[in-house]
């Protein structure tokens, strides 16, 4: 999938700052590909870049309007479809990671055909897959896992890839979600893969490689989230990780969108993830923790990370505040 750049990031009229994490991820890791943002009202969280109407975005060279939000159910609100149709009429390609297919909306499909532009349904563009087989394969693989969904698994994997490359190591981020695919330019959105083929999809995107090559596999969901645990389990089996990096957001009160479900302890999460990962790699180990500490001050953040390190004997860091250097030091030391 080759999605034309640069992008105009469409945020619709969402109210939850986490709902724009897809657009924020693209901007963070590929800022040169983003000409601006399009919000339907000023109550929508801003990415801190220029607000551009569709016409101005085209004047700045935008080739693709990217639906940069995620919502429960993955369906486009009707009034968003109006905006997408207007964009197509102006010559934009449109890319979406929603479960609802752009191509299945007749007026968008008709407009795209008429204007000669493309609709990219990121969640639905996958090769023919086989079921996972669990055969051991060469290379080093790190999988980001978490206590909950939306806790920084993609960000952590990208940060690990960047740090490894900065040290001259061979490394590739392996995208398993729509944001990661837009950032990396390739991957499979595993939450749209038929359940039997999730582990096979993970095997496909992280195949056998050189013994010293690192695959940083983007995790999804959580084994403790009733809505998304199935995808998490498939990735644990198919990625066949040598190392797990546990991710979390400090201060989160409960499982996202489910206030009646309490978050697990770090220990419970580590134990369950390792137990399931051992199905395809009996030698898997915990490499460390990547914690979003933005809800507390630096002193509290450092104290929390120190507690984790004392309990588990592995590095704990906030990749934004403190970088992932300690995690990479530990990973490299473990593979010498």
UniProtKB/TrEMBL annotation:
<dbReference type="Pfam" id="PF07755">
    <property type="entry name" value="DUF1611"/>
</dbReference>
<dbReference type="InterPro" id="IPR035086">
    <property type="entry name" value="DgcN-like_C"/>
</dbReference>
<dbReference type="InterPro" id="IPR011669">
    <property type="entry name" value="DgcN-like"/>
</dbReference>
<protein>
    <submittedName>
        <fullName>EBNA-1 nuclear protein</fullName>
    </submittedName>
</protein>
<dbReference type="Pfam" id="PF17396">
    <property type="entry name" value="DUF1611_N"/>
</dbReference>
<feature type="domain" description="D-glutamate N-acetyltransferase-like N-terminal">
    <location>
        <begin position="58"/>
        <end position="124"/>
    </location>
</feature>
<dbReference type="InterPro" id="IPR027417">
    <property type="entry name" value="P-loop_NTPase"/>
</dbReference>
<feature type="domain" description="D-glutamate N-acetyltransferase-like C-terminal">
    <location>
        <begin position="131"/>
        <end position="327"/>
    </location>
</feature>
<dbReference type="InterPro" id="IPR035402">
    <property type="entry name" value="DgcN-like_N"/>
</dbReference>
């Amino acid at each position: 999938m080759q999605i034309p750049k640069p992008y105009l990031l469409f945020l619709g009229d969402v109210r939850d700052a986490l709902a724009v994490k897809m657009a924020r991820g693209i901007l963070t890791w590929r800022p040169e590909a983003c000409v601006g943002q399009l919000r339907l009202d000023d109550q929508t969280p801003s990415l801190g870049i220029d607000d551009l109407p569709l016409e101005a975005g085209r004047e700045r060279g935008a080739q693709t309007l990217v639906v940069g939000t995620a919502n429960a159910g993955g369906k486009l609100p009707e009034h968003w479809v109006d905006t997408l149709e207007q964009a197509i009429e102006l010559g934009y390609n449109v890319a979406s990671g929603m479960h609802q297919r752009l191509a299945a909306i007749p007026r968008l499909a008709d407009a795209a055909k008429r204007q000669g532009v493309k609709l990219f349904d990121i969640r639905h563009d996958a090769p023919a897959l086989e079921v996972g087989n669990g055969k051991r394969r060469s290379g080093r693989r790190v999988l980001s896992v978490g206590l909950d969904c939306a806790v920084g698994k993609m960000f952590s994997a990208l940060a690990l890839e960047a740090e490894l490359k900065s040290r001259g190591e061979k490394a590739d981020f392996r995208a398993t979600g729509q944001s990661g695919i837009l950032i990396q330019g390739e991957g499979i959105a595993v939450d749209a893969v038929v359940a039997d083929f999730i582990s096979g999809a993970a095997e496909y995107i992280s195949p056998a490689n050189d013994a010293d090559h690192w695959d940083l596999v983007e995790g999804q969901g959580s084994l403790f989230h009733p809505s998304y645990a199935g995808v998490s389990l498939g990735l644990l089996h198919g990625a066949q990780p040598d190392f797990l990096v546990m991710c979390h957001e400090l201060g989160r009160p409960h499982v996202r969108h489910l206030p009646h479900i309490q978050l697990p302890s770090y220990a419970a999460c580590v134990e369950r993830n390792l137990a399931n990962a051992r199905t395809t790699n009996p030698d898997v180990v915990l490499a460390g923790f990547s914690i979003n500490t933005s809800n507390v001050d630096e002193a509290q953040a450092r104290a929390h990370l120190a507690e984790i390190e004392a309990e588990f004997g592995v590095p704990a860091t906030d990749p934004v505040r403190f970088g992932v250097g300690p995690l990479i030091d530990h990973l490299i030391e473990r593979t010498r």
